[in-house]
Write a structure and sequence with these properties.
The longest helix is centred in the middle third of the chain and has 25 residues, at 68-92. It is built from 8 helices and 5 strands, in the order βαβααβααβααβα. By secondary structure, the protein is α/β, with parallel strands linked by helices. Helix 2 (49-59) runs antiparallel to helix 3, helix 3 (68-92) runs parallel beside helix 5 and helix 4 runs antiparallel to helix 5 (118-129). Strands 2-3-1-4-5 form a 5-stranded parallel sheet, with helices on both faces.
Amino acid sequence: MSMTERRGLFITFEGLDGSGKSTQMDLLARRLAAEGHPALVTVEPGGTRIGAQIRRILLDAENHALAHTAELLLYFASRAQNVEETILPALCRNEIVICDRFTDSTLAYQSFGRGLGEPVVAALHRIACGDLTPDLTVFLDIDLETSLRRARDRNRNLDAASAGQTRMDEQSAAFYERVRDGYLTLARREPGRFRPIDGRGDIERIASRIWQAVEPAVSGIHA
């Protein structure tokens, strides 16, 4: 299917680890279902059987030697599979898709965080995703201290199957400062698509703000 044939609504969630993306995506999906708009929920990296295998490589704490360029290519390999197998078919069925991370994450983490540059990320996006861009991006912004604290708390509670998947949590504070700065830059650059929302505080209040941002777009596709 051509990327330009898609319809539906493509919503992505972005932010530092610990920003509450998973919780808020679940609440949004439930709200959409209650309003008569069930959504397909997926995740990056992952989202497919093949993507889940790539995700394990990327997050495995034993893979300290993973080169930055190899990391970048693996993220896009997972994304290409997810777009082809899951995201684009759903959009072409006029469905709503909610995705935990997309290319904005790669720009923030690999371009700004790793210093690999935006042109290479843009080139790989064209290869892996064509012209597919989110219609709306919810950016849950939290400060670095909150992100690191939540990541530590989460890692203490990981089950045995996930205990070794902490490679990205082990990066330096300076790295995550660059990532957050990258997100803020992207949000300023595309104010029409990005919806920055403070990820701290009451979960239900954050969910209400997200719904206020999303509801007009949902009404638009079903008008």
